[in-house]
Amino acid sequence: MEVITQPNSQNLHEAIFQKLRSLLIESAIPPGSKLNERELAESLNVSRTPIREAIRRLAADGLVELIANRGAIAIKLSHEDVVQTFDVIAQLEGYSGELAAKNISPSALSELEALQYEMMASYARRDLSSYYKLNLKIHHLISHAANNAVLTQLFSQANARIEALRFRSNQNGVKWERAVEEHQEMIDALKTHNSERMRKVMIQHVMNKRDVVIELLQSEAFHTQNTPNEISKA
Questions:
Q1: pTM of the model as a whole
Q2: Rounded to an integer, what distance in angstroms lies between the CA atom of residue 220 and that of residue 160?
Q3: What is the DSSP track for 131-174?
Q4: Would you tell me which of 7, 148, 164, 170 could form a disulfide with 176, CB atoms 3.0–4.6 Å apart?
Q5: How far apart are CA 131 and CA 123, in angstroms?
Q6: Exposed, middle or buried: residue 19 (CB in 10 Å: 0-12, 13-18, 19+)?
Q7: Beta strands in the chain (DSSP E)
Q8: Angle between the 79-103 and 128-145 helix axes, to the nearest 10 degrees?
Q9: Which of the four pLDDT bands, split at 50, 70 and 90, describes residue 224?
Q10: 132-152: per-residue pLDDT in tens?
Q11: Range 28-34, long-range pairs (CB < 8 A, 24+ positions)
C-alpha cells in the first residue's frame, strides 16, 4: 500500500481520508471487511490518530458502519438497499440536471467541458481509477450548477452509499462505452439549455448504472453459491 508522506498535519489528515476513501471505492477494502486501525496506520506509515479521524468521516459519508464491539466495517448493501438507493439518486440527478440546464453559467460549462475532455482521455487509456474520479467531479459539478444547496447535499449523501458500486459498473466494456456516450449527451443538453432532455439523460444514465450493478451482484451471488466443492457434490 502507498505510504502517505505529508509535512502539514491538515494535509496529512486529508490525504489519509482520501486514500482510505479510494481504497473503499475501488474495493481494495472489500465490502463487509473490517478497517483495522493498527494495520492501516502501519501500512501508511502514520499514527492511528489520522486513521481514526478518517474513519469517522467515512462513517459520516456512509462508506463505513461503526458497529459496537466490531469497529468500523466497510458498508455492504443488500439488493434492496442498492435498488432503492439508485432509484432515489436517479430522481435527484434528474432534477439536478434539469435545474443545471436552466442555471449553468458559462464558466461552469467550460469547466465541465474541460473535465469531459480529461475523462475521455482516461477512457481512451482505460484508466478506470482516473476516469471515475473525473466522472464524479462532473456529477458533482452538475449538482452544484443546479444552484440548490439542499439538493446538492442530498445527492452527496445518497451517492456516497453506492460509490464503490458505481466504480465497478464501468468494468464492463460495452456498458462503459454507453456511459461515456451518455456523458456527451449531458454536455450537449447543457450547452443548449435543454432542461427536459437533460433530466431524461440523467435519469436514464443512473438507471443503466443500476441495472449493470444488479447484474454484477447477481453474478457474484451465483458464483459464491456454486463453489467448486458444491459443484463437485452435484
A1: 0.77
A2: 22
A3: HHHHHHHHHHHHHHHTT-HHHHHHHHHHHHTTHHHHHHGGGSHH
A4: 170
A5: 6
A6: buried
A7: 64-67, 71-74
A8: 60
A9: low
A10: 899 999 999 999 999 999 999
A11: 29/74, 30/74, 31/74, 31/75, 31/76, 31/77, 31/164, 32/73, 32/74, 32/76, 33/73, 33/74, 34/70, 34/71, 34/72, 34/73, 34/74
Kindly state the DSSP code that residue 95 receives in the 8-state scheme: H
Residue type, 71: G
Q: 10-33, pLDDT tens digit by residue?
A: 789 999 999 999 899 888 898 889
Q: What is the dihedral sign for C-alpha 38, 130, 77, 28? A: negative
Query: Would you state the pLDDT for residue 159?
Result: 87
Grid cell in block for residue 137: 467531479
Closest CA to 143 of 100, 172, 82: 100
